[in-house]
Amino acid sequence: MIFETLRRWPDVEAPELRAWDAADALILDEAAALLPGSEPAVIGDEYGALTLGALDRGATRVRVHQDSLAGELALAANGAGSYTSLPLDPSLVAGARLVLLRLPRSLDALEQSAALIAAHAHPEVVVVAGGRLKHMTVSMNEVLLRHFGRLDVSHARQKSRVLIARSPLAGAEAEPRRQFHEDLGLWVVATGGVFAGTSVDIGTRALLSVLDRVPPYKSAVDLGCGTGILAAELARRAPGARVLASDRSAAAVASAQLTMAANGLPVRVTRDEALADEPAGSADLVVLNPPFHSGAAVHPGVSTALFEGAARVLRPGGELWAVWNSHLAYRPALERRVGPTRQILRTPKFTVTASTR
Q: What is residue 10's predicted lDDT score, i.e. its pLDDT?
């Protein structure tokens, strides 16, 4: 089976983590009769298992969207065959008769994908959408039934289940959500699936509360930018500075671009893996509210890679200001990978530190 050849993804080394699971296998099994000679679209393929599995089972060409750049890199490292990576837009699903969909945890993300498929796929499209039972809810059925006239539910297997949607209903694509935050004087715009949506998560608020204490900067980076709130604030505090917002997530990058446009801010936004495309020693300041999950698994390697990327991009004497859940005790890792680290703020839940390169 194709899964036997899949490597683990590049940034996670834990042996208990794999690049596929039982839900991927069930999606492919449920779609097996439709795959030979097909040209399916694949959405949410974590690290390439669905794309490679579809090709292995007879698909002739695959269009695939992966939100995480790490997923694209993993597919490229493992993959062979005819597939094209595309953004989550009409080109991904136009005319498709078969869509394989890994169910996202976010209902907004599912709404965006379902509306896109219903609006642009073939009228006889079959959507085979699967996930792990522990992450599935009845609300997912309700989202799909807003966009499709028929929904069938598979039997559970290995703690996974598949929803099969047919008969797309006429409708428009889902619009990005917008919210104006009076306390910040800032519009936040979010596409489906971006972390925290249009809200300001409490970790970001903790870091925002101390930004008036950062040293002067001519170049600054919001690493793991999400919707771009920290980058927007950095740009407003230093109008002449070069500010970059960077994230591995396509949804985050799209959201940050919309946030900057909504607020008229000249912030550059890039999709990058831990600032790999940025020159060494090019930033005075990096701010970071790091994730600590890879998919559903808690793994410190996610943040460690970001610390190392920040250290490389910072000039000597530049600073990384990071906020993190206090129980994670990141300070030793920051000391090793960036430099001397001091505590700026500590609350019962969060710690903010500044590390000097």
A: 41
